[in-house]
Amino acid sequence: xxxxxxxxxxxxxxxxxMSDSWCTIESDPGVFTELISTFGxxxxxxxxxxxxxxxxxxxxxxxxxxxxxxKYKSESDPRPTIQSENEPSLFFAKxxxxxxxxxxxxxSVLLNVPETKIDLGPTLTEFxxxxxxxxxxxxxxxxxxSGPIRDSHNxxxxxxxxxxxxxxxxxxxxxxxxxFIAYVPHQxxxxxxxxxxxxxxxxxxxxxxxxGDWLSVARPAIQARIEKYATSEIRFNLMGLVKNKKExxxxxxxxxxxxxxxxxxxxxxGGEAADMELEGDWALAQGIEALQAQLAETEASLETCxxxxxxxxxxxxxxxxxxxxxxxxxxxxxxNLLRILAERNxxxxxxxxxxxxxxxxxxxSK
Length: 366
Fold this sequence. Notes:
Radius of gyration: 25 Å
Number of strands: 7
Distance between the termini: 25 Å
Structural class: alpha+beta
């Protein structure tokens, strides 16, 4: 297909081979958070969710969408899909690049979050507008041919010692093939977005509409998929796109500090509630003893909030260090290590020992 040259942003000039140079990336919240940041998106991060219970979801609220990784099996799915033209504001793209499945799942969430909730940044804002009238397949092709998206994805490519001019090996039945899908709320309903299917799957309406608990609709679908393979497979991974936790905790800290100041003013006035504007349902206690108890409770909450902020800083620093290590080129070190082992006549015995071990199946993504 062809587009008029003046209508195509330079970001999306079609290349001769969409599958060129798309690497596989690790399913990890630190990786996904940095990847989203390189897209130019602000105010969000990815958190790993270790349980489907309500407490886990509440601790990470607000959750804008879910990304689920599971072992892929080619089989029929009796659930009906919908035609995307019947949901024109729902972003859904067919998957045309195998190694881009993680990025495609991330985009399926990001591009369906209301613009009032997150800042997509110029790259994805332009991409969303550019592909708004595309078919599902053309949207998938646009993802495969987006230079900025591919470059961000490939920033996590492992250093290769040799560049081989050959096609990638096709996965066989012996390989463990994994696949990413997304779950998103959209206009009062919840959708499962799987780029390998013919269209989105409507999981049902949300009680309370757009302001209701959409996760209660997504939870049974995810649980059913896990239980389906529970006897033979335990490797699942669930991650949520959430509001930037430092921003959430900073807002909470500011709120608690304002409450603390109000309590201190009331105590200084002999227990009389000051005439000041307070937020929400929170109100100053009446009387010295009640105010002192409220003061202690608020101070404890503020201390907990600050501890969580420190823990979040440490976690983000850890993610940054892990990502540096993922991207670092260790090949010169390994080559020198092998050379030294060979000089000491220790390399050959190690090779023979490794050959004697049974080989394991490889893992790939779809």
